[in-house]
Design brief:
21 helices; 30 strands; alpha/beta; 2 domains; eight-stranded mixed beta sheet; GMP Synthetase, Chain A, domain 3
């Protein structure tokens, strides 16, 4: 039996027990047997979750790109590493072999070096889903620079906040991006952002859409000519196990976005291990995750996890609806995809379309289907299982977070029997616990509570960039000695976990984490707005959509409501991005508040969900009369 690759349920339980009884030996064996180390560790784990201070493989030295690329060169040099499928189906796909990837990463790394980037420097990457995006990550990792990828759907304001938060002096972007029938002016967005980022001295620009763009003299440089000149030899920087590998921002319920810091060795070991087991990857498989590399799913399960296993990983530039809703299935057929990993929101959108979009394609290559990012409802699960998997493919409902770095709770195909809507069992090394609101651990089965993790795992984020106190306060202070996920969950009679959703003010819309506070801050900037509150309500495709209750200033009350709604969504788009737009905006005279002045979101949530008969006790409100007024005008 190998710890690294679990093949049946009995093995899972054996491995799981070992991982809990003796985590250090468990992870040490996996690390020793499956990776390339330049220097071994002195200690497998040092930890104190109250601080929190967690160090895995302390003393070890390595470079993650040697593990993701160099060590495959001998046996897999001519195997496709990245399989690029462009937005336009008539454009040729690119098969980038491990050998070619090595050369392109080394050249890119040398360009970064020539531009003065050194170990520990932060590099902001704002690119569409093109090969250069994956290559840019790896090029940073090659020389020990810390990448901070910003999803290319974020606005210039959101980009500027992220660039400034971690002091990037260099940005990698492109002249634009394709998204279905549209093009996105990424360089224009970068130009706007950089008006507020005085620290950025260099912008490297990839040519993708061949549009006319403004090149800022002395700052902006086309990437390709530099790559053409660069050497393809670039020795990998020796990294300490706990050196930061990347920063990735995620929304919190309050304040500015949190720059989650992931470090090198633990992240590598954990993403590789979970990729291998959750997707049961075999040597000749073609694996496709439809996420964007701008999110953690793309970092861990398009780039690092698959490449660390020598896999072929598809990088898809397009969208599921372009040129029509058959695109995913056309790509599966074309590249004979074996593992397919997507989000419930995409499945729900696809399920609403005609069945012949999938029926007209040969999906027989598929072996495993995955979902991630939000709870999957039963109907969507069955549609996926029946029409895409033809009841032959295990579905892995994988629960995890930007902060966890890798998949935490998930079935292991062919081992864990699946049940719709259940993420099922913790992966080896993961020790979940459910808590009640007072902080008591709920033992036994058939309980529900707040989902926590009671022991460190290798890929956990180590801190929030520049704000360790916030890291501690957000995740490690609610339940002493535990990592608090912010999610609620239930454990059923067999010990299976079902994630029930956020218990804080984060709302998951189409699988994207959106904090209410930053959206409210954006709306409140509108000159006609006095105050606002955002809550989520169920949406057929997006899972949740946003409902805004907005109090207008006197000047606003004279304005046309339809125009105001448009302007409010425009302001949100400018501050955050189109993903945070509100589906419903209700203008109201007041918001229900507690005597201490806090908005009672619980009541607004019920109203937005149409559950006005379940408002509970409103007598403690400062202004109970506004509740009736809001209900009267509900949209
Ligand atoms: O609420 C959970 C939900 O997504 C949150 C994490 O979002 P993010 O950091 O953007 O990472 C998404 C991709 C890993 C979680 O706190 N979530 C994620 N996966 C699931 C899920 N909820 C239910 N079931 C899942 N499989």
């Amino acid at each position: 039996m190998s710890n690294y690759h679990i093949k049946n349920l009995e093995e899972y339980f054996q491995v799981y027990r070992k991982s809990v009884r003796d985590p250090e030996t468990f992870w040490e064996e996996i690390a020793e047997e499956n990776f390339l180390w330049r220097k071994p560790w002195d200690r497998v784990l040092e930890h104190d979750l109250t601080q929190p201070a967690v160090r895995w493989f302390q003393g070890a030295q390595l470079n993650i790109t040697e593990n993701c690329i160099d060590r495959h060169l001998y046996a897999r040099g001519s195997k496709t590493a990245l399989l690029f499928e462009p937005n336009d189906p008539s454009e040729e796909p690119q098969h980038i072999t491990y050998k070619q990837l090595h050369e392109r990463v080394c050249k890119f790394a040398n360009v970064l070096k020539e531009q003065g980037v050194k170990k520990g420097d932060r590099v902001c990457i704002y690119l569409p889903m093109i090969p250069e995006l994956a290559i840019a990550l790896l090029a940073c990792a090659r020389i020990g620079a810390i990448h901070s990828v910003v999803f290319a759907g974020f606005s210039s304001t959101a980009l500027a906040t992220r660039i400034n938060d971690c002091d990037c002096s260099i940005v990698v972007t492109s002249d634009g991006g394709y998204r279905g029938a549209k093009t996105i002016d990424l360089k224009g967005i970068v130009d706007e952002a950089l008006e507020h980022c005085k620290g950025v001295t260099t912008v490297l620009v990839v040519k993708r859409i061949h549009s006319e763009i403004n090149m800022h003299k002395g700052r902006d440089i086309w990437l390709q000519p530099l790559l053409d000149e660069a050497s393809s030899v670039c020795p990998a920087e020796l990294m300490e196990a706990e050196d930061p590998l990347f920063i990735l921002y995620t929304s919190g319920s309050t304040g500015k976005p949190k720059g989650m810091v992931h470090t090198t060795a633990g992240y590598m070991v954990y993403t590789a291990y979970t990729f291998k087991n959750v997707f049961q990857y075999r040597e000749d498989d073609v694996y496709w995750c439809t996420a964007d590399i701008g999110w953690i799913t793309g970092h861990s399960y398009i780039v690092y996890g698959p490449l660390a296993n020598g896999a072929t990983t598809v990088l898809f530039e397009g969208v599921p609806s372009y040129p029509d809703w058959s695109r995913f299935w056309a790509v599966v057929e074309k590249h004979k995809v074996n593992q397919f990993y997507t989000a419930p929101t995409a499945i729900r959108a696809l399920a609403k379309e005609r069945l012949d979009f999938s029926e007209n394609h040969d999906l027989s290559s598929l072996k495993i289907l995955g979902t991630v990012g939000e709870p999957i409802n039963e109907e969507a699960w069955h549609w996926y299982n029946d029409n895409i998997g033809k009841k032959q493919c295990p579905i892995v409902d994988t629960w995890w977070q930007t902060e966890t770095g890798g998949i935490m709770i998930s079935p292991i195909p062919y081992a864990t029997p699946t049940i719709p809507t259940f993420a099922t069992l913790p992966l080896p090394g993961i020790q979940p616990a459910l808590m009640d609101e007072e902080g008591n651990t709920l033992h036994g089965n058939s309980v529900s509570g707040r989902l926590c993790i009671g022991f460190p795992w290798p890929a956990m984020a180590r801190t929030i960039w520049g704000d360790h106190q916030r890291y501690k306060d957000t995740y490690f202070s609610t339940f002493k000695g535990y990592y608090f996920t912010g999610d609620g969950a239930l454990r059923d009679t067999t010990g299976y976990y079902r994630i029930t959703g956020r218990v804080d003010d984060v709302i998951i819309v189409s699988g994207h984490n959106l904090g209410t506070a930053p959206i409210e801050d954006a709306i409140n900037e509108h000159p006609a707005v006095a105050e606002s509150a955002i809550v989520g309500f169920p949406h057929e495709i997006k899972g949740n959509a946003l409902y805004g209750f907005v109090i207008l200033k006197e000047t606003g009350e004279q304005r046309d409501p339809a125009n105001l709604r448009k302007e409010i969504n425009q302001i949100i788009t400018e501050h955050i991005g189109p993903i945070a737009k509100l589906d419903k905006i209700q203008f109201t005279e007041g918001l229900p508040k507690t005597r201490s002045g806090k908005i009672m979101r619980r009541i607004l949530r019920k109203i937005a969900c149409g559950e006005t008969d379940q408002l509970g006790d409103t007598s403690t409100l400062l202004n109970p009369e506004v509740v009736d007024a809001i209900i009267k005008d509900v949209l």
